[in-house]
């Protein structure tokens, strides 16, 4: 994925992230936002994209925030090495998401 990610358009990068997270975590809901434009000119901005992931998955049940983030990072491991400079993660279980939507 790394070379494909580096040479991908912004929309293709989002699709690659979505595909990886879907395969690894079977999310009930997944939103990936490219925040790279907000970081133009900042140190490190040229080294890769900035993204925000909001994901709802049963895989997060019983896991603390750090473990949930680790699952997301593991699914994107090679892109984190060379194609993603920053990743903000909001990770819910289905129950937490339903409670937050009330």
From TrEMBL:
SUPFAM superfamilies in the record, alphabetically?
Answer: BolA-like
Signal sequence annotation: none
Which InterPro entries does this entry report, sorted A to Z? Answer: BolA, BolA-like_sf
Domain of life where this protein originates: Bacteria
Which terms under GO biological process does the entry name?
A: iron-sulfur cluster assembly
Q: Name one Pfam family in it.
A: BolA
Task: Name the protein family.
Answer: Belongs to the BolA/IbaG family.
Name of the molecule in the record:
BolA family transcriptional regulator
